[in-house]
């Protein structure tokens, strides 16, 4: 992009309806970021500042969302820890949370 040194880069995790797409858990992150290049002024004489340029980056998952597992067997097979007291799958391993 020919903005030279004159631009701002903004990161948003809101979708088009305004819903937050950033979910951070202890061992899991889900995000659908959008980068927007603002105030882009090309480095040549009398060039106008360009309008905002949104760039949809797609969604990414990092780690494991243990809350998706609903039994001890699938939880521990999925690399998470089963909490016998709450009957929930959480970050951990086969020995527990």
What does this structure look like?
Helix content is 6%, strand content 31%. It is rod-shaped, with a radius of gyration of 21 Å. With 97 residues, the chain is mainly beta. The longest helix has 6 residues, at 72-77. It has one helix at residues 72-77, and strands at 8-12, 23-24, 28-31, 34-38, 53-56, 60-63, 81-83, 88-90. Strands 1-4-5 form a 3-stranded antiparallel sheet, with no helix packed on it. Strands 2-3-6 form a 3-stranded antiparallel sheet, with no helix packed on it. Strands 7-8 form a two-stranded antiparallel sheet. Strand 2 (23-24) and strand 3 form a beta hairpin.
What general form does the structure show? rod-shaped
Please summarize the sheet with the most strands: 3 strands, antiparallel
How helical, in percent, are the residues? Answer: under 10%
- Helix tally equals 1
**Strand line-up in the sheet with most strands:** 1-4-5
* Termini Cα gap: 47 Å
In total, the number of strands is 8
Low-confidence stretches: none
How much is the average pLDDT?
83
* Topology pattern, helix = H, strand = E: EEEEEEHEE
Q: For the CA atoms, what is the radius of gyration?
A: 21 Å
List the helices and strands and how they pair.
Blueprint: E1 8-12, E2 23-24, E3 28-31, E4 34-38, E5 53-56, E6 60-63, H1 72-77, E7 81-83, E8 88-90
Antiparallel strand pairs: 1-4, 2-3, 3-6, 4-5, 7-8
